[in-house]
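Input (structure):
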């Protein structure tokens, strides 16, 4: 079974690029299931019901998020109502939404957990301990996928080894820069520190490069405009053994 995981989709231009390219990519790679991080999919910042539904209509099965999930208030009810979009599980229980999703494909159940890192983030609880508890919620799922939305590469690596053999895949998001460390860990878990970004290639994390350069140069506040231009897709494909739930292969995509 092949699972496609898309890196952080940035702004409406990223969403439009996914709409244009995802169906062909899924056919070409024989994809059975698709996960995408959509926390920056709305124009400007955050995620809205419109941008989330746009991604679902484009062929995404489950949307994960991160530290920008609550930037747009209009998403709050959507998070509570839908079972196929998740926010970090280590946020407060009374926050809108839930930290895991389940998908029943008939032949197999897939569980997806979203976590936020602790370094330079707004996480409110220990992601390692919370993940242990939430794994019990998806114990009926043969395939278990973790999106660890975190800043520090060391924290992501540690999470990978912590969950090795317990889940199918641990993938990192948040930095919008794809790492080249995809691997199958010793006990069968697929891992990558950051999947990367789906958005404008000639940008700084999807934002107009001139704005960010000026901000770093003069240290003054700036309004971030989404960049425009040629888009790229960063993603991974995880090939899963349905009998064991472990990963056979992880392949990195950057095009």
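Output (sequence):
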């Amino acid at each position: 079974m092949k699972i496609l995981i898309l890196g952080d989709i940035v702004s409406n231009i990223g969403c439009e690029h996914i709409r244009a390219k995802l169906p062909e990519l899924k056919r070409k790679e024989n994809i059975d299931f698709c996960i995408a991080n959509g926390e920056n999919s709305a124009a400007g910042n955050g995620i809205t019901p419109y941008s989330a539904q746009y991604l679902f209509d484009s062929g995404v099965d489950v949307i994960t998020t991160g530290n920008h999930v609550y930037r747009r208030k209009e998403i709050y009810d959507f998070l509570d109502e839908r079972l196929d979009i998740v926010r970090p599980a280590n946020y407060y229980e009374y926050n809108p939404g839930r930290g895991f999703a389940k998908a029943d494909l008939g032949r197999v159940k897939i569980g997806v957990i979203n976590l936020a890192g602790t370094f330079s983030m707004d996480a409110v609880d220990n992601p390692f301990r919370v993940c242990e508890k939430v794994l019990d919620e998806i114990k009926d799922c043969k395939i278990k996928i973790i999106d660890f939305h975190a800043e520090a590469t060391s924290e992501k690596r540690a999470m990978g080894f912590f969950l090795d053999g317990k889940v199918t895949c641990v993938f990192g998001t948040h930095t919008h820069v794809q790492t080249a460390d995809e691997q199958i860990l010793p006990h069968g878990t697929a891992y990558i520190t950051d999947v990367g970004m789906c958005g404008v290639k000639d940008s700084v994390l999807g934002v107009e490069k001139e704005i960010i350069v000026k901000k770093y140069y003069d240290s003054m506040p700036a309004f971030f405009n989404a960049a425009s231009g040629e888009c790229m897709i960063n993603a991974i494909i995880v090939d899963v053994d349905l009998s064991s739930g472990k990963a056979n292969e992880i392949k990195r995509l950057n095009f």
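Notes: The mean pLDDT is 96. The CA atoms of residues 120 and 211 lie 22 Å apart.
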